[in-house]
Amino acid sequence: MSDEDKELEALKARRLAEMKKNVFSQLQKEQTTQKKQERPPYRDIVISKLGYRGMEVLQNAESQYPNETKMIIEKLGELIYTGEINEEIDGGKLLALFRSVGIHVRMETKINIEQDGKFVSLSDKLSSKEKEDDSSNI
């Protein structure tokens, strides 16, 4: 066999090994994408477990601290997906979780008072009382 034939065979062997390696890496990529597609996004998993006012807390956290909230939701979703957390997460628990890691999510607070069988906010009650006082002073 001549030197050219040996070189040609060596090139063919290298090319064949390279092609096998490419096919193998492509198969690995497809398998990882299939695994990712099998489970729903972690945010959806967390939302499915949210209870009373949980969504409100989550939305406030996402608007105030988007990057930090994304990391926490990813980890929380992973824990729910693996079964380490299987209880409902209400707004108070979620707010406590955010605060325990140093994220102070601001929530809108309202105080309602019953007046004539209806619930009226404290600010409305105080403003209507001021109007009554002003009109009686005239």
UniProtKB/TrEMBL annotation:
One of its GO terms (molecular function) is DNA binding. Pfam families: dsDNA_bind. Signal peptide: none annotated. Gene3D superfamilies: PDCD5-like (1.10.8.140). It comes from the Archaea. Belongs to the PDCD5 family. This is Double-stranded DNA-binding protein.
